[in-house]
From TrEMBL:
Origin superkingdom: Bacteria
Primary location: other
Origin species: Pseudoxanthomonas sacheonensis
Protein name as it appears in the record: HlyD family secretion protein
All residue ranges annotated as the YbhG-like alpha-helical hairpin domain in the record: 80-195
Location in the cell: Cell envelope
Lineage summary: Bacteria, Pseudomonadati, Pseudomonadota, Gammaproteobacteria, Lysobacterales
Amino acid sequence: MRNKKTSPSLFLIVPIALCTLALSACKDSAPQVLGTLEWDRISLPAPVAEKIVRMDVREGQQVAAGASLMQLELTRTQSQLAAVQAQAQQSREALSELEAGPRSEDIAQARANLSAAQAQAAEARAYYNRLLPLGRQKLVAASDVDRARAAAGNAEGQVRAAQAALLELERGTRSEQVAQGRSAVAAAEAQATTQAVSLEKLNVVAPRAGRVDSLPYKLGDQAPVGSPLAILLVGDAPYARVYVPEPMRANVKVGQAARVFVDGREAAINGRVRMIRSEPTFTPYYALSGRDAERLSYLAEIALDKTGADLPAGVPVRAEFSGNANGQ
């Protein structure tokens, strides 16, 4: 049996083919950046320091926009709302009184007071006129004449005051008083509206459809004002938060297409860069390798399509940008 001889040209063809494949692979592969998968988060702060009296959802539950999440105690806020509503009603009634002007009975009373003052003034003047000649004849004391003169002057002053009071009622309420009354009503109604909004916020609802990520407080807890009562993950799909090394930064633009790879999924998820920071940050620990540990990187966000809508937050991802992102 004769041995077959291998052609010398075969030893040349195989290395050339391997090199060609390697160069092609190096040319087609794009540099990748590392990061994590994230969802947009909404935090719902406590509007007031009230006790949680009802829990309507649990962590991980999917909720629709407007769905009730929890209920805070209403008693105190309801009482405050009732008080400001009563003040607003009082201000409206006072304004109505100002706009209606004086009552006819008040005007009649003012006219009667004027008539009485005029009668008293006439009597005082007559008494003074009778006493004055007697004073000149030294038949009465000068002090009696002075008292009669003062009484007559005082009575005439009472007449002028009664005339002014009647004139004020006849002319009605001043426009400035009506304007002040309207301002008081507007202020009271604004306070009532604010308190009504505060009361409505005690029923904590989801502002957008999403998934309940965290409920820091439990039934019966009393969270301080501003503390998050619930945290929601919202949006149609998550986004990739990645760190772009400095050599690639100049070629990564907002709106640029990208592919994101998630461990456990063979197919890449398509996305587009929606944000990239202008100032660098230090490279995160999971992106350190060799001399890259001394380089800065830039935080970027890649919005993904809906094929990744079922992925959880916090999953490590790798991303590569389309186009000449590596500057070569």
